[in-house]
């Protein structure tokens, strides 16, 4: 079960966070996200403390802020959705800079932005400190259904193969003078997508037959057995434990 090489989100470093077993980091991030989502949206100060906790983790992992901020751009569609909420939501209205906005919509937008950004930032830090192969081993260690782990493994293993096939098809089109400039060229692109699907399907069948001929029976062998000590679990769960204290204070105060 190998990914073949490090993914683009991974940042190689020798840090305490990188050294933690993958399943402990997966459990910590999941618990942290659950705690963040459970925090009342009116406790705005709590989300600031969550950001400080993530900043401390990034510092320990030697991941620069610019690295995280660039990868937070993936949540731009959610930001656009959040911006629309104050305009379309119902209920009490309030005037802000001459615009009539919904109070519930403003709180909803804040809720989406704050919790979504923190969740994405935590995921970015997980990906930056854990190689894909280790993530798969961690999922396996956490007893994720083996079929799902296999699907993820094959997706990672052959994702670059399909991407390279797309690149070759693009070069072939351009070498024949094709440039997609408008709607009238969509037909060519649709045919290319169909050809790519057929090629991928045929390649998948050939790979499956090759695996069966080598003894594949529906389950992948476990290459490495990852374990974690009590001290490693304690270090990994320090983030969600601290966040839980903040969350409880947010409900009490």
Provide an overview of this structure.
The protein has 253 residues and is mainly alpha-helical. It has two domains: 16-139 and 226-252, no CATH class; 145-213. It is 70% helix and 3% strand. The chain is built from eleven helices and two strands. It has helices at 16-19, 22-38, 44-61, 65-71, 76-88, 103-129, 132-141, 146-175, 186-213, 230-236, 238-252, and strands spanning 93-96, 99-102. A two-stranded antiparallel sheet has the order 1-2. A hairpin with a 2-residue loop joins strand 1 and strand 2 (99-102). Helix 2 packs across helix 7 and helix 2 (22-38) packs parallel to helix 11.
Give the tags.
single chain; 253 residues; mainly alpha; 2 domains; two-stranded antiparallel ribbon; 3% strand; flat
Let me know the number of strands: 2
The outline comes out as: flat
Neighbour order of strands in the largest sheet: 1-2
Task: Please indicate the percent range of residues in DSSP E strands (runs of 2 or more).
Answer: under 5%
Rounded radius of gyration (Å) = 23 Å
| SSE pattern | HHHHHEEHHHHHH
Summed up, the domain count is 2
> Helicity, in percent?
55-70%
Task: Report the end-to-end length measured between terminal Cα atoms.
Answer: 48 Å
Ranges where pLDDT stays below 50 over 5 or more residues in a row are none
Oligomer: single chain
